[in-house]
Amino acid sequence: MCSVLLLSACGGSDSGSAETDPAEVGEPVAGGVATVIQMGEPRTLDPAAMSNTYAGSALLGNALYGTLMTTDVDTLEIEYGLATDFSSDDGGATMVLSLRPDVTFSDGTPLDAEAVKFNWDRLRDPATASGSVGEASQIASTEVLDPTTLQVELAAPNPNYAHSVIVSSMNWIASPNALQQGAAAFDENPIGAGPFTLANWSRQDVIELEKNPTYWDAPRPYLEGLTIRTSADTTQRLNSITTGGATWPRTATGAPSLQRKRQERRFRSYRWAAGNTSA
């Protein structure tokens, strides 16, 4: 088991001890399985129905599907992952998404502009009943310009629309082929382009992920797997950490901004071990 410990907001104040500068941390070592304990289990692994929040399914979604973009916690600048750019030259009326070329889902199908269009159009369809419909419905139309370029017309100009994508399930792109197989089949075999794939899901017990051998950002992930367990009880979650039953917790309580930034600095040197799993 890897030895990462991310302090929880519900676990009391910062110890005040000297913090290790991430720059001084050595190179990551491959291997091991991290165990995460979270407060609640998602009812489905369909990204449209998952919550992209720290207290929700952000780690699980990022692990299975990767991210188009993330936000640097110190500078608030956008960092790109599966996307390479998402910008506008007309004040945010039209956004152009550029994708990393030659990326495939774990089933071998391409993660291209058509795949993003399928996912985003599905999210903005009220019939999907996604929790991210508010962000997705800001889109008026989408058009594939070429395999790596999607043009997005917004209902109203929003030059900061990228941040709406980052905090919603729009940031997770699943295989259209897999989604079209139906909800039950998708939950058995969710297909994304993240650093991990599903090995086993025993509902109300454990979700086990294993390293994606075709992950685009090799040699990441350095971990061989993730084990995600669920406990709604705060004391039980903390006991799991202190007794070694879990590597780190996901909590419902948002940490104060300074404490979150300290936690993120401690965690940053490890987070690529599991792919980009920042919330």
Highlighted features:
5-stranded mixed beta sheet, D-Maltodextrin-Binding Protein, domain 2, Dipeptide-binding Protein, domain 1, 21% strand, disordered C terminus, 279 residues
Structure, described:
The protein has 279 residues and is of the alpha+beta class. It has 2 domains: 1-8 and 26-66 and 194-279, D-Maltodextrin-Binding Protein, domain 2 (3-Layer(aba) Sandwich), CATH 3.40.190; 67-181, Dipeptide-binding Protein, Domain 1 (Dipeptide-binding Protein, domain 1, Alpha-Beta Complex). Helices cover 23% and strands 21% of the residues. It has helices spanning 58-65, 113-124, 133-136, 161-166, 176-179, 183-188, 234-242, 257-271, and strands at 33-38, 69-71, 78-80, 83-87, 94-99, 139-146, 149-154, 196-202, 206-211, 225-230, 248-249. The strands form 3 sheets. The protein has a 5-stranded mixed β-sheet with strand order 8-9-10-1-11, sandwiched between helices. A 4-stranded antiparallel β-sheet has the order 4-5-7-6, covered by helices on one side. A two-stranded antiparallel ribbon has the order 2-3. The model is unreliable at 1-19 and 249-279 (pLDDT under 50).
